[in-house]
Write a structure and sequence with these properties.
Elements (H helix, E strand, L loop, with lengths): L73 E3 L2 E14 L12 E14 L5 E13 L7 E15 L2 E13 L15 E15 L2 E14 L2 E2 L5 E2 L6 E12 L6 E13 L7 E14 L4 E14 L7 E16 L2 E13 L7 E16 L2 E15 L4 E15 L4 E14 L6 E13 L1
């Protein structure tokens, strides 16, 4: 589904209970939506994997432990080390994601990965890295070498009080499906760096959270269709965010909360795109049927004000969203999410995209070592600040994962993606058929 497919042993990376999911999180094995800017959202591994835990409320079929098929890793002192590698090929019916094109090809990929987790009784730290190297059979201009490195940590102050921190570096190639992608001879490449610090405190039934985020985007120049190198420095920027949240735990999963954040975005060479904004939401976690159905919903207001954009200096509206996990049976899970947000765009003439969408993933465990999955997602990007443009992006897919044993597995995946747009040249449809084999230890 995405070029940089970063899951690094999904059963080893689990989110903290207090942390809200973004709309672009991984669902199941193959499902979930991708961010408009291509950034890879990595699951927070600060709550380390516990081999003693069993299938429980709030854990999907795809993410629950399989002791007979989970990798054991290697003990390195007070750390556990997990290496893996994936090899595979993908038939792509529309490499450039263009309207009325027959540019089909086969992509060959290798994805090496390593992760290192502490197994301390107090505090925690983890490191992970993954490469994603792709080579096309005929269209070498589309070859890419991407990678992600990250660190996550937790410092336990006292019972009920802890701090988490982390950073990541990502080397990415912009997908041809991105509306920000220029119609050039090669895809844009860029680096992102992200850092965050978070403090959590629990007092009785109340819990409090504060967080500071920093994200940096740095784009390389690209070669246009005339063979001339053109700068992409106008897209370079820093994004900052300060967040605060207070919640009250009525009972397991039932946690009303109030969340607010303020952000500001500064461009290196394109000050008219500088902006600041906020959003305030209230919501609650929930569960029904004894934990068979769990999730979160929220509703509020969001606003982003642009410093000196030529047309339309403000984007505002209702901010709503939610996620739900329904463990229909002991071997079947349904995950869903919906969200509306203001997304950054560098598409010429527009200052923002109001993104509204959702994703749905059904996972079935046919056998302990065989998973079947069906997923779909849709996102409407309503671009603001210029001529009317609305992009409706759709994707439907199915996939299977078969574990030969704890060290080897294979994936088969089919996806059909298409876009409908007010701009006819932005429309496309695309078939992707993938077969991969993986080894993990």
């Amino acid at each position: 589904m995405t070029r940089v497919f970063f899951v690094l042993f999904a059963v080893l990376l689990v989110s903290t209970a207090a942390e809200a999911k973004t709309p672009y999180y991984q669902q199941g094995i193959f499902g979930g939506r991708q961010e408009l800017d291509g950034y890879v959202n990595v699951r927070n591994p600060v709550e380390l994997y516990n081999t003693a835990r069993i299938a429980e409320a709030g854990v999907s079929v795809a993410n629950r432990p399989r002791p007979e098929y989970d990798p054991l890793g290697f003990r390195l002192g007070s750390f556990q080390f997990y290496p893996s590698v994936e090899l595979g090929g993908t038939f792509d019916s529309n490499v450039f994601a263009e309207n009325n094109t027959n540019a089909m090809d086969v992509l060959w990929q290798i994805r090496p990965a390593v992760s290192l987790f502490s197994n301390w009784s107090r505090h925690a730290i983890s490191f992970a890295a993954q490469g994603d190297i792709g080579m096309y059979t005929d269209r070498s201009t589309e070859d890419f070498s991407d990678g992600v490195m990250l660190m996550r940590g937790r410092y336990d102050v006292q019972r009920g009080t802890f701090m988490t921190y982390g950073g990541d570096f990502q080397r990415l190639t912009e997908q041809r499906t991105s509306p920000n992608s220029a119609l050039s001879a090669e895809a844009a490449t860029y680096n992102t760096m992200g850092f965050f610090g978070r403090a959590n405190h629990r007092q009785g039934m109340f819990d409090f959270e504060t967080q500071l985020d920093l994200k940096r985007y740095d784009y390389d120049g690209i070669r246009n269709n005339a063979g001339v190198r053109t700068s992409q420095d106008f897209r370079d920027r820093n994004q900052y965010r300060v967040l605060g949240e207070v919640g009250y735990e009525l009972q397991r999963f039932w946690r009303p909360f109030l969340r607010a954040n303020y952000n500001w975005r500064n461009y290196d060479n394109f000050g008219t795109r500088d902006s600041s904004g906020y959003d305030i939401v209230g919501g609650t976690g929930f569960e029904f049927s004894g934990g068979i159905i769990t999730g979160e919903v929220f509703l509020g207001h969001m606003n982003q004000t642009y410093k000196n954009f030529l047309r339309g200096k403000e984007s505002a509206g209702a901010h709503f969203g939610g996620s739900v996990l329904w463990n229909i049976t002991g071997v079947t899970s349904l995950e869903a999410e919906v969200d509306r947000s203001i997304e950054e765009t560098t598409l010429a003439g527009y200052h923002a995209a109001m993104a509204t969408g959702g994703a749905l993933t059904l996972t079935r465990e046919l056998r302990r070592n065989l998973l079947l999955e069906a997923n779909m997602d849709v996102t409407r990007n309503d671009f603001e600040g210029g001529p009317d443009r609305v992009d409706d992006n759709y994707r439907m897919g199915v996939g299977t994962r078969y574990f030969f044993n704890r060290n080897f597995y294979s994936d088969f995946e089919y996806n059909f993606a298409w876009r409908q747009s007010d701009v006819q040249t932005a429309e496309f449809d695309r078939h992707l058929i993938s077969l991969r084999v993986g080894s993990q230890y």
